[in-house]
Amino acid sequence: MTKSKNLSQILHAIVLSATLMGGAQADVEFELDGMRHRNETSSGALSKVSMAGGLEFFIDGKGFDDMPIINSVQFLPTQNAEGAIPMAGPPLNIDDQIQSATVLGRLAYTMPSVEDATGRTYDALSTFYIANSDTNLRFRVSVANTAEATDSVCPDDALGKCEVAYNWLYTPYLHDVSPNQVYWDQDINIMVNSM
To answer: Which CATH number do you get for residue 136?
Structure first.
């Protein structure tokens, strides 16, 4: 009889500790640790992003779906953005899906062009920001797990680790080339007519 009582107490203790541990994890179940370039180990803001996109980076955090393609990267404007809602970026490309290890808390993503992220043209954006002497277009990144209808965001004390700034100064233009926005490591074919 004492064995069954002891077994009952042990099972009760296991269930209680599992419940308490589950409750402690629920507070940080959907949280981002930050973003980083794919060749770096520490997280921080991405402040030198070409308006043409193309920057490959990792988003570290918890709450991602096991299948990378199910996750949706969201962009929330942070400038003059009262009442702004996050905009969904393009889906992960095949390279992002291969580079991701969502079970380990790592989601790979390639920065879209500012046109793809906002749905606005370069001309409309450049007119506004250059007129206001601002060379950056800033966003806070979050990840929506569309299968579970949850969002992973940076905690309030680490919001800077989830900031991305598109920068006109890192967006070189080539005239008479299409597309004329270029980014690092982009393949461009140029035909020169010497006549």
So the answer is: 2.60.40.10
